[in-house]
Amino acid sequence: MGKVVRLPKRSLNWRVIAAGMLTLYFFFSFIRLGVALYQTNLQIKSYNEQKALLEAEGNRLREQIRELNDNDYIERLAREELGLVKPGETVVITAVPGQVRPYIPPRPGQEFRD
Fold this sequence. Notes:
The chain is an all-alpha fold. Helix content is 59%, strand content 0%. The protein has 2 helices and no strands. The longest helix has 55 residues, at 14-68.
């Protein structure tokens, strides 16, 4: 009879198993890192939007401070809200039917002065 050739037993090589496990570990590590990077970029975008809103609010408040310190604004506000007049001016109050306000002249210490 002929010679019987036996094939070597095919067993899993420990190097192949280790390489496969290492590959899986790196694959899942990169996926986890990618997810963390994506979440961090979303946070950065959110913080940049908040920063832009806060800068706009700061600019609006600075403009309001400039307006409140303006002498023309202070004079207009004193005339409209407090009813103050400059010496020598005549006060004219328009009458609206049903909404008549009596004129109460300011006391001498409340007169508007330049």
